[in-house]
Amino acid sequence: MKKISCLLTLIVLTLLVAGCKNNEPKDLAKFEKHLDQTQQKEAKMKQTLNHLDLKQIDQLKEQQMTDKNKKEFNELQTDINSKLMPQMKAYEKSAKKLPAESSKVKHLKQTYLQGVKQKKQKVKDLKTFVDLCNQSVKANEDILDYTKLFEKKRSLMEENVDKANKHGNKQDVETFTKKVENNNKELKNTAENHINDQNPKKRKKAIEEHIMPLIDKQIKDLNQTTITDSNVNEARKNAIEMYYSLQNYYETRQDTMGITQRLAKIDLQNLPKKGEDLENDDKAFDKELNQLKS
């Protein structure tokens, strides 16, 4: 009885294996039919990549950002976010839906999906690079604006002090100017001692742990100083606004350090500039497909 049972099991397994082998060509044909649709979505994504003006990326290393290429980079960012990324998403979604039932076709699908994953990462790196470039430009513009605001408030503060010297309370003027001079000296020394390190992480940490708390302390101290003269009060108001602009300046410098660190991790040479730059990611799949069909 046991021999008969074993024999029947062997026959069933043999039939199952034979059935799987017979189904494999049909499974592959079904896979390839849907693959055509998936590759159409890929072709659309590659076409968009071809139409993007990506030569700017290589040129950016050789020249400063100007108003012209700043505008072009903004347009590039818009095209990547509104066209390329949605097309990449549609391509990936279609690839994940490729039918596969037999073990070999399932393995083939996984190989294909691995290639899609690599393409997606390259496109994401391109998007990240362009996003970071535009963030860097915006941050540097903000730094320039905060520097101008700082100078403007300092000039107004000095005008207020001059008026107070001519018409106001000499004691208030002396108290205020001494505080501001000491503050400036303390800020200068702290900056020289802590944020001249070449390491961006250490500079960021120094700003957070030394510069920002010091400016907070100086603003609080100025606010609590007793002043009766109206011109000196105006000078104090402008000095506090000057320190706030300095805080914004350093906060934005922290941002630019973070952006610089992230940009340094991106290999410009590996960023896709044309659709053909993604074709290497299909080599393993093409080889496996040809072997399966032979």
TrEMBL record:
Q: Which residues form the signal peptide?
A: 1-18
Q: Which InterPro entries match?
A: EMYY_lipop
The residues forming a coiled coil are: 28-55
Judging by the UniProt lineage, the source's domain of life is Bacteria
| Comp. bias regions, Basic and acidic residues | 273-294
Keyword set for this entry?
A: Coiled coil, Lipoprotein, Signal
Using the UniProt annotation, give all residue ranges assigned to the region (Disordered): 272-294
What is the protein name given in its UniProt record?
Answer: EMYY motif lipoprotein
Q: Which organism is it from?
A: Staphylococcus pettenkoferi
